[in-house]
Amino acid sequence: MRDASALFDLRGRVACVTGASAGLGQRAADILADAGARVVGVARRADALEEWVERIGKPAAAVTADLSDRGAIAQIAKDICVPFGAPDIVVHAAGINTREVADEVTEAGWDITMNLNLAAPFFLTQALVPAMKAKGWGRVVNFASLQTSRAFPGGVAYGASKAGIGQLTRAMAEAWSRDGINANAIGPGFFPTELTGPVFADPERAARNAAQTCVGRNGVMEDIDGPLLFLCSDASSFVTGQVLMVDGGYTAK
């Protein structure tokens, strides 16, 4: 029988995590490094990335880049491959929520949301896929959302981008899974991050969200570790094209 612990062992793997400067992106980068992967973190904030690299040590490297600039994606992909070689795993955690209400959505707000939340995961993956194909193994993990399937106030652009992530994940799986590249998505519930700062700044609102879950609480950072490690490892070899909601049952009620 196969050693169960080996299913989640990422030693020898190289991972790229976008949005690694904070929040769930940085948590994802942490857990992949803990599992043995060499991790390249990508984000705009150089100082935050440098602090993360110093904390993790040799298995970590940083690429400072603006993923919302679609014209820069090809060069960013090349830069990601410099520290440890081409990644086997890519986690797309970078995102933005402009929270513009429907009557006030701007073209600029719409464009940056779609470029960062939806276009970047596709075009960056597209640039990294040839190396995964050559190895016959790869893992792509997109970040979906409660708004992949639910409508929230002020979430027109964000919700549209995250609904798109659901279909993008399925399309990636259809395109590349026969090459050994599995594509899935994680849909976090309410976690205390910079992106959800306005939610947790209102204790009553945070309590209402917690009460709407099946488990009766909002997420803590540790809750993302197991699902992410599962989707990035050999443990998920027959799982592709799926959106795994890590939301305490919020979308089940």
TrEMBL record:
<protein>
    <submittedName>
        <fullName>SDR family oxidoreductase</fullName>
    </submittedName>
</protein>
<dbReference type="Pfam" id="PF13561">
    <property type="entry name" value="adh_short_C2"/>
</dbReference>
<comment type="similarity">
    <text>Belongs to the short-chain dehydrogenases/reductases (SDR) family.</text>
</comment>
<dbReference type="InterPro" id="IPR002347">
    <property type="entry name" value="SDR_fam"/>
</dbReference>
<dbReference type="GO" id="GO:0030497">
    <property type="term" value="P:fatty acid elongation"/>
</dbReference>
<dbReference type="InterPro" id="IPR036291">
    <property type="entry name" value="NAD(P)-bd_dom_sf"/>
</dbReference>
<dbReference type="GO" id="GO:0016616">
    <property type="term" value="F:oxidoreductase activity, acting on the CH-OH group of donors, NAD or NADP as acceptor"/>
</dbReference>
<dbReference type="InterPro" id="IPR020904">
    <property type="entry name" value="Sc_DH/Rdtase_CS"/>
</dbReference>
